[in-house]
Amino acid sequence: MLIELDNTTKIYNQGKPNEVTALHGVNLQIEGRTMVCLQGASGSGKSTLLAIIGCVFPPTSGRASIAGKQLSRMPDRFLTIHRREKIGFIFQQFNLLPRLSVLDNITLPLLPLGISPRERKTKARKLLGQLSISHRENFPAGQISGGEMQRVAIARALINNQPIILADEPTAHLDSRLSMEFMQIMTDLKASGKTIIIASHDTLVSEHPAIDKIINIKDGRIDVP
Amino acid sequence: MRPSHTLFIFLLLLIIIDGMLYLHAKRLSKDLKEDQAIQAIAVAGLGLTDLGVATEARYTRHPAVSDPMAPFMDHPGAIEHFPTGSFWSAPTNMFSQKY
Amino acid sequence: MLPKGLEKQLNILDFSLTSLWRRKLKNLSIMLVFALVIFLLGSFQMLTGALTSSAEAVLENTPEITIQKMSAGRQEAIPLAYIEKLRSIYGIRAVIPRIWGYYFDESNLANFTILALELGSMPFDSNLNLTLAHGHFPKKTEPGTAVIGRSVQDILGLDKRRTFSLFRPDLSLKSFKVVGVFSQQTDLLSNDLIVMNLTDARDLFGIPVSMATDLCIYVANPTEIETIAKKIAVLLPDTRVLTKSQIQKTYQVVFSWRSGLASICLLTALVAFAILAWDKASGLSPEEKREIGILKILGWETGDILAVRFWESTLVSALAFIIGCTAAYIHVAFFDASLLKAVMVGWSVIHPPFKLLPSVTLADLLLIFTFSVLPFLGATVIPAWRCATVPPDSVIR
Q1: Does one domain contain both C277 and C329?
Q2: Does residue C260 share a domain with residue C208?
Q3: Nearest residue in C to B54, CA atom
Q4: Which of C168, C200, C219 represents a domain boundary (last residue)?
Q5: How far is B61 from chain C (nearest CA, A)?
Q6: Fewer CB within 10 Å, N or C, chain B?
Q7: Is residue C24 located within the same domain as residue C125?
Q8: pLDDT confidence bin for C218, thresholds 50/70/90
Q9: What percent of chain A has pLDDT over 70?
Q10: How many other CB atoms sit within 10 Å of the CB of residue C269?
Q11: 3-state DSSP percent of chain C in helix, strand and coil, to 5
């Protein structure tokens, strides 16, 4: 099992007056090479669940095993390294650095790894070619279209050959044509062996044939239908 | 070109400029030694006590031998010597009148 | 192929440089202000250090003891009769009376220094003619002659003419013939100088034959200077006794931090950097926080982000420091320290050329560094620590 959460709880500000329990004893299993859609309203704990799966922080209690590593009691530094190696993020707002070029945005995850500029550019250009945006290589990321930004975000999520892709509302700012294109890319990635988790309200996503499983989260608990 | 390489080239340029200035300083030092030898003769032969830089007031022209009252006004109508007065501080030998 | 560790640091350096360049207007402005303040401080230190060194080098030969008569705290003419009294002190080799003072030329607003002494009477005045570009010093048998400094020559228009006149106290004119001009090499000392015979100086200033401006004393044994000075002070209580070491010490402190302009320069630097530091420490902008959140979630460790901030600050401050100091040297060495010179010579119309070796000492560089670079670098510690507290999940929400 690639992703396994066993009785996972996450409490923010534990012991303080503003203590909040975002996840209550969540149990979750996701196999490798699958595409999962995560659905939940705002405040349901969806972002917290994504953060734990994304190795951003460990759970407060319970077990969380992501890509073979237990997150509980893992120091921050190792968490960062594990996240860097295993998780690729695609954000709702794309979260590109607008004044940086497309190429530089894509290679951002590689800078702390001590990879030479030539090697970084080679990897990035390969992905740009696969995603058909090679012609935007040197453009500032803030000056390309929404669809192109989406592809750049995907390329950045794949640059380190991460096995798990986490996408948070990736189609929120895209029209239906671009949303279909995005889902096609995800389908191709799944076929190549990636595990993809998409948090989305978009029915275009949840009803896509490539989706293997839909997980609903409500009030910090997995809603079992 | 890599940004760090551009930086290194710029730093190299600065090092070259500073290197040339260093060589200039060496040559100037040599020239000045000759000048200072002549100046020393003037000082010894004429009993000079000060550099003639600011001739505006006696305590700026001759700070070493001006009397302690010199930095202060000679009379209420005397104009304050600004900015030289703030550049040349009062003679310190007025603080060490141990004789 | 570089080692991974070095490649990583170069990558971070590249990112820092592009980060600085992305906000180039702001960062170049900061660097410019920084460099300007360092330039100001550096110029001041180099110029005053150079003048102090020059003074140290040449005032080695200043008279061993100088006696001035004091009255009501002010200097006045000293009676020559005091020379007789000094004969009772053992160890005095020579006592040379001098007349010197200032002549204000109203038409040109120039203050000249008039100096008169019996040439040939000073113990160390051999080769004095080497200080002249041409001509000779006034002889005793040549009344009405003078040797002038180059600025005096310029101001009085004495390139073609050889004679000039000065006013006596009763407003009658006294003529002088120029028999020599000081050489360019002595400009720093002789620029405003007019050297004449004692008789002529008495005539010009109206000083009686029995008086002089001060007395220069030379001793047989230089190690006895302080002892003899004390004896003179006891013997002549209404005089001020200045030793060579006191005169030399003047120039070690005349440009001290207490002098007004030095304080202004240092204070300006401090205030400028307090403002900069406040700006840096006042927190991260939303854009900066977002950027840090993105980098963290992409796998950048807190240490890497701190390294970027550190490099950014170091680059700005180090480059500003080098550029500021280099510009300061060039300003003093090649441009006559013209920005500061105007302040230093004040309203005087006589401007000596500053052929000076800018003083670049480790102590001065450290002082400038401490008042500029360190506060700026220190100010990055606080916001850098703050960047460590930006949670990576801030970009997920």
Answers
A1: yes
A2: no
A3: C345
A4: C219
A5: 9
A6: N
A7: no
A8: very high
A9: 99
A10: 20
A11: 55, 20, 25
Q: What's chain C's average pLDDT?
A: 86
Contacts of C73 (CB under 8 A, 6+ apart): B67, B68, B69
Do C178 and C299 belong together in one domain?
no
Beta-carbon contacts below 8 Å between A and C: 80
User: Nearest 5°: phi and psi at B15?
Assistant: -65, -40
Domain co-membership, C143 together with C205: yes
Provide the pLDDT for residue B96.
47
Mean pLDDT, residues C213-218: 93
Q: Per the CB < 8 Å rule, is A108 touching C298? A: yes
Output helix, strand, coil percentages for chain A, rounded to the nearest 5.
Answer: 35, 25, 35
Please report residues of C whose CB lies closer than 8 A to that of A81. 299, 301
End-to-end Cα separation, chain C, in angstroms: 41
Domains for chain A: give ranges and CATH numbers.
Answer: 3-223 (3.40.50.300)
**Of chain B residues 60-99, which have a CB less than 8 A from chain C?**
60-70, 81-89, 91-93, 96-97, 99
- Assess whether C334 and C384 both reside in one domain: yes
Contact A66, A47 (CB under 8 A): no
| Cα dist from A161 to A30, A82, A152, C300, C351, whole Å | 19, 13, 15, 16, 72
What ipTM was assigned to the predicted interfaces of this complex? Answer: 0.89
Domain tally, chain C? 2
Does the structure show a pLDDT above 60 at C152? yes
User: What is the per-residue pLDDT across C287-333, written as a single tens digit (0 to 9) for each?
Assistant: 888 888 889 889 898 889 888 888 988 899 899 999 999 999 999 99
Give the chain A residue whose CA is nearest to the CA of C388. A76
> Which residues of chain C are within 8 Å of residue A168 when distances are taken between CB atoms?
396
Task: Give the residue numbers spanning the domain of C336.
Answer: 4-57+255-395
Whether C38 is in a domain gets the answer: yes
Give the pair of three-digit tokens for residue C66.
């100088």
